[in-house]
Specification:
191 residues, mainly beta, Pnp Oxidase, Chain A, 3-stranded antiparallel beta sheet, 4 helices, 39% strand
Length: 191
């Protein structure tokens, strides 16, 4: 039997990433779990950020940001950037022991320690309740060579070892084992 919980912001699991923004010499970083791919043509991401965040203020001023996928062993650094405000701790990257590296296309830096980084330009922003939804076009992707498959073209999730967030219980976890091949396992139900 299922129990009704009413409208809740629950989805399992949620990516847990660093979002970095920069404008007028200021740089800020924050943890974001409300993020997803928004489209393929053009490649884009969408995220929801509380409207009071300094990172969002810098995104609004510059129109650019980066998304940086941490490894599971980076949970403490990610959590720190989510619970401490850039208004009170002006250099959260340094305080978390993270290295900012210039992006190739946008003004916001990428995080060297993260095995996967996306450089993004804002395509659209709009208010939704107490959050701002940001849709960003991905203008460059960086991937550590160590996490690529043998062809050197595809990042492998088990090598990235991405951190994920579990809402309600407020836990960070790593991904589990492979269970099937996508676009293949479901063919058994076709005709």
């Amino acid at each position: 039997m299922k129990r009704r919980l009413g409208p809740r912001e629950l989805l399992y699991p949620m990516p847990a990433v660093f979002v970095v923004s920069a404008a007028d010499g200021e740089v800020d970083v924050m943890a974001v779990a409300w993020i997803a791919i928004a489209g393929a043509k053009p490649p884009s991401v969408m995220m929801s950020i509380r409207s009071t965040r300094k990172t969002l203020e810098l995104i609004e001023r510059s129109g650019e940001f980066t998304v940086n996928t941490p490894r599971a062993d980076m949970a403490a650094q990610l959590d720190f950037t989510g619970i401490v405000s850039g208004r009170t701790v002006p250099d959260k990257l340094r305080e978390a022991g993270l290295t900012a590296v210039p992006g190739a296309v946008v003004s916001a830096p990428i995080i060297a320690e993260c095995p996967h980084n996306l450089e993004c330009r804002v395509a659209r922003m709009f208010e939704h309740g107490d959050h701002t939804v940001v849709i960003g076009e991905i203008v460059e992707t960086h991937v550590d060579e160590a996490v690529l498959d043998e062809s050197g073209e595809k990042p492998l999730a088990d090598r990235i070892d991405p951190l994920v967030y579990i809402p309600t219980v407020r836990e960070y976890r790593r991904l589990g084992e492979k269970v099937a091949d996508a676009y293949t396992v479901g063919k058994r139900f076709i005709g």
